[in-house]
Design goal:
The complex is a heterodimer of chains A (about 350) and B (about 575). Chain A has about 350 residues and is an all-alpha fold. Chain A has 14 helices and four strands. In chain A, a hairpin with a 7-residue loop joins β1 and β2. Chain A starts with a helix and ends in an 8-residue tail after the last helix. Chain B is of the alpha+beta class. Chain B starts with about 35 loop residues before the first strand and ends in a 10-residue tail after the last strand. Classes of the chains: A mainly alpha (about 350), B alpha+beta (about 575).
């Protein structure tokens, strides 16, 4: 098992490194292909002619006159070891590792901006994930145990509807019903859990539900199909023949086998979600990583886009890594050689 | 200057650099009516005039300023806010309406210049002090302007005007790295600028916040030098910049060292002005409507409040919809459509009524018959060389006649360029496409990211030809309200460059060039700029669509409210606003 973990960990590190190289090249080099100086993406305008001493001074300040490998090393070493951001006159800005640079548009360290936004996104993702996992697996299991029954028909019809409805529909619909019409959750603005747990919970209910509604539907359908297949296996019949109770057969033998692919996609979904909650955060006015990234894209704030992209990729890689480990625990047949 | 550079304003907030105030100043002469609240009452007049002092004004904005350092700022609304805590050698006697007028601010008078406008001298008033009690000296004014040359450190302001006019060594990079700039000479009471070229509009540069004094080699105190100065700028104006939390809030309290006797263009009454940054547009609208905030400092109201204003008289009486200082237009490229009659066909066939709707309707602008906006010399409300008919939907008959003269009676095909992302531009394109199709002109769209649109897409004459861009969407407003300030960058043949070209059609007309070349020597009159506008229209390269308008809301409790159309597209001039002492 240790060998398995080490190999997977090394693989994850290589993937992260490749992501850093590709991301760096995309964001640092591609602008020059469209004849736009990367300086533009740092200060927001092209204020001086390309060959002027003023433009050369700016290019030098941001290090765009360095060889490509030196630019990359500067970028990577900042993430690994931190760096000091200075123009030689203003007070140097200490950017501790992992340093993702400085937003000259918003006058803040990118790391600080992401650290402020991350708890919102993490709150959203974890809460929604718990809801959709419990809800989806439960509905899928009951449907599978009684295929063709009323429970199954209602569950599957509901999940089909849920999976068909985008968040930009369900989100405003929930707001319309619970905030504006019923007034059950009026004027719920986000507060960190550390400041006001009750307000934090109230503010997250509708975002959790709308996000879980979409994902839970997928999980219900997936659980149902896996469970139906599993419950028809010979070893399930054997377990029943041995006189095990129905709940034991379902949970210990049926669900455990059926849930393996669920765990796989759960990890990937959760990892992907960190970088893709833009719509939910926008609909519910949550200032998380998704909102930060869309704002940065609109403002063409390159250091922020770069930082959020790397973080989203790293989270996805870590999620995959954890899934691999869990997968090995759930199914002992999984080894490094597979 | 291009609209896009005033970042947060989607349509762009470009402004002239005028500062001043009417009415409330003891020496200024109101030229318009003042009184009770009504729709558009603050556009030309002053709403709720009052001398009652005290109280706190509560302002909201959706973003922070690009910088609070006067040398590092380019957002129009931030120039407006800088009237609170910065003063320059000159300012404006009047900021509202369409005719801002220059006046002395820190200087004793309007200064003097030599015959060819290459040497300008100003004398500072006595007794001027910063908020820390130290004297404001000519050396400080010089130091502030020298900072504009430190472009690797301070690169957000309107430095290009100063670099292009003030004489300096080619390798001069500001006071931090290159030290003293010899072409700016100071004494104990005077400052003299030696220019590398004639520039009769130099007074307008001296009225920009970018010309504000900065304490000589002290800046904002320990640690607040270079780009850090924006975190703690020292006040030369009636309010002190304090309690700044980036992206959240800033508070302006009264400067006890500021004297009314030295300031003829401001008359503040509030004790404090609080600016809170609230990125939720709907929340801003709600607070304005509820009266828990007094005004929005940065932009038009949002769609929610706009709807209330337009439908509910209770809100409408507290709103203003001023015509502002920029023009939206289409550039029709002679390099791609060389025949002037073909270009004229586009002009005649365009449905301006539809285009105004696409831009947001009549509250977003009024259809323009010529390029020069109302605040600029040479503007004519009646000029309309290519009349679009009574209802402004286009003159199809004249368009077809122009096509016959052009030798393309069945029309032709070309491309329309616009920048992305944009919610408005696709609608504008669709409207234009429909209108031109009526006479057989088929247009297809070609887009570019806004990052490169103005610099290398339509800012490159070669790319325009290579891409076959016949028409390009653009907008333009001057940084200061003169004919030269508006026209030179977009119409002077001498300023055509390979990339970053702002003269998109590469207009190089001797009649136009002659007027623009004479302007820095003070030899071009308002009539000349009217003639210039006519000539541009004859060339049929700039198709004016609308003169921009914005819609703003003021809390009924506010006093002394007037629009600042010199600096900030009609946003309220907050330096003199009060709350009746509450």
């Amino acid at each position: 098992m240790i060998r398995f973990i080490v190999v997977r960990l090394l693989g994850a590190i290589v993937v992260v490194w490749i992501v850093s190289v590709v991301t760096f090249l995309i964001f640092q080099i591609v602008p020059t292909l469209s004849h736009t100086s990367p300086v533009y993406y740092y200060i927001g305008k092209i204020p001086f002619p390309p060959d002027s001493i003023q433009m050369k001074a700016l290019i030098h300040r941001f290090g765009f006159d360095l060889p490509l490998y030196a630019q990359y090393w500067h970028f990577l070493s900042g993430i690994l070891f931190g760096q000091t951001i200075t123009d030689g006159v203003s007070t140097p800005i200490q950017c501790p590792a992992p340093c993702f640079g400085y937003s000259f548009r918003q006058h803040q360290l990118v790391g600080t901006m992401m650290a402020t936004a991350a708890p919102v996104t993490i709150s959203l993702c974890i809460g929604a994930a718990i809801l959709w996992l419990i809800g989806g697996v439960t509905v899928g299991t009951f449907s599978a145990l009684n295929p063709g029954s009323l429970v199954d028909r209602v569950g599957m019809t509901g999940s089909l509807a849920a999976v068909s409805l985008p968040i930009f529909f369900t989100g405003p619909l929930l707001l319309l019903i619970f905030e504006y019409t019923l007034g059950v959750l009026p004027d719920v603005s986000y507060l960190p859990i550390t400041q006001d747990p009750a307000q934090w919970f109230r503010s997250m209910i509708l975002p959790w539900v709308s996000l879980a509604f979409l994902f839970g539907a997928l999980y219900a359908r997936l659980t149902r199909s896996n469970m139906i297949e599993t419950m028809g296996e010979d070893y399930i019949r054997t377990a029943r023949a041995k006189g095990l109770t129905r709940p034991t057969v379902i949970v210990r033998h049926g669900l455990r086998a059926a849930i393996t692919p669920i765990v796989t996609i759960f990890g990937i979904d959760l990892g992907t979600l960190v970088g893709s909650t833009v719509i939910t955060e926008t609909v519910f006015n949550l200032r998380g990583l998704g909102y930060l990234s869309i704002q940065a894209i609109q403002q063409q704030d390159l250091p922020v886009i770069l930082g959020v992209t790397i973080i989203a990729a790293v989270v996805l890689v870590i999620a995959n890594f954890i899934v691999d480990i869990l997968y090995a625990f759930i199914d002992p047949r999984v080894t490094v050689y597979q | 200057m291009k609209i896009k550079r005033r970042g947060i304003v989607l349509v762009g907030l470009l402004a002239a650099t005028a500062m001043a105030l009417v009415g409330c100043s003891s020496s200024a002469t109101p030229t318009t009516a003042s009184g009770a609240s009504s729709f558009n009452a603050a556009v030309d007049g002053i709403v709720n005039p009052s001398t009652v002092k005290g109280g706190t004004v509560k302002l909201l904005s959706s973003t922070d300023c690009d910088s609070w350092d006067p040398q590092n700022t380019y957002y129009g609304w931030c120039w407006n806010m800088q009237r609170l805590y910065t003063r320059s050698l000159l300012g404006y006697q009047k900021v509202n309406g369409s005719k801002p007028v220059l006046a002395p601010d820190l200087a004793t008078d309007m200064g003097t210049h030599n015959a060819d406008y290459t040497k300008w001298t100003y004398t500072l008033q006595k007794g001027l002090k910063y908020s820390d009690g130290t004297d404001i000296t000519p050396k400080d004014v010089k130091y502030g302007i020298e900072r504009l040359f430190a472009t690797d450190i301070i690169n957000g302001g309107p430095a290009s005007y100063f670099l292009a006019t003030i004489s300096h060594p080619a390798d001069y990079l500001g006071p931090y790295k290159s030290g003293d700039l010899a072409s700016i000479v100071t004494t104990d009471s005077t400052i003299e600028f030696n220019l590398s070229t004639s520039y009769s509009d130099f007074n307008y540069l001296m009225a920009m916040a970018a010309s504000a004094p900065v304490p000589y080699k002290v800046e904002g105190g320990t640690g607040f030098v270079g780009a850090d100065y924006g975190k703690q700028p020292v006040s030369s104006g009636p309010f002190v910049f304090t309690k700044y939390v980036p992206t959240q809030s800033v508070t302006f309290v009264r400067n006890k060292f500021w004297k009314q006797s030295t300031d003829k263009i401001r008359k503040p009454v509030a004790n404090e002005i609080d600016l809170t940054i609230d990125s939720d547009e709907n929340d801003i609208d709600s607070k304005l409507a509820a009266g828990t905030a007094d005004a929005r400092a940065d932009l038009d109201v949002g769609t929610t409040l706009k709807s209330k204003i337009l439908t509910n008289p209770k809100f409408k009486v507290n709103a203003d919809n001023p015509t502002t200082a920029f023009t939206r237009y289409m550039t029709v490229m002679p390099s791609v459509i060389p025949n002037v009659y073909c270009r004229q066909a586009i002009f005649y066939a365009t449905n301006k009524a539809e285009l105004v709707q696409a831009f947001g309707g009549t509250t977003a602008g009024v259809a323009a018959g010529s390029m020069t906006p109302p605040t600029i010399a040479g503007h004519s409300a009646t000029a309309n060389m290519y009349n679009s008919g009574k209802d402004n939907t286009g003159d199809v008959a004249k368009a077809k006649a122009a096509l016959v003269k052009c030798g393309q009676p069945n029309g032709f095909a070309t491309k329309v360029a616009y920048s992305t992302p944009s919610q408005i531009a696709p609608k504008v394109f669709a409207s234009l496409q429909t209108a031109l199709a009526r006479v057989g002109i088929k247009v297809t769209e070609t887009t570019s990211a806004s990052s490169s649109y103005y610099s290398t897409f339509i800012g490159s004459p070669t790319n325009i030809v290579n891409q076959g861009i016949g028409i390009a969407m653009a907008a333009w407003g001057a940084d200061f309200p003169t004919g030269y300030g508006f026209w030179n960058s977009i119409a002077n043949g001498a300023d055509i460059v390979p990339t970053g070209n702002t003269n998109y059609p590469s207009l190089n007309d001797p009649v136009i060039n002659k007027i623009l070349d004479a302007a820095p020597n003070g030899k071009s009159t308002d009539a000349d700029f009217r003639k210039l506008d006519d000539q541009v229209m004859k060339d049929a390269v700039y198709l004016p669509i609308l003169f921009g308008k914005s819609i703003y809301y003021r809390n009924p409790r506010l006093t002394n409210v007037t629009s600042d159309n010199a600096l900030a597209f009609g946003l309220y001039d907050f330096v003199n606003v009060g709350t009746g002492g509450k």
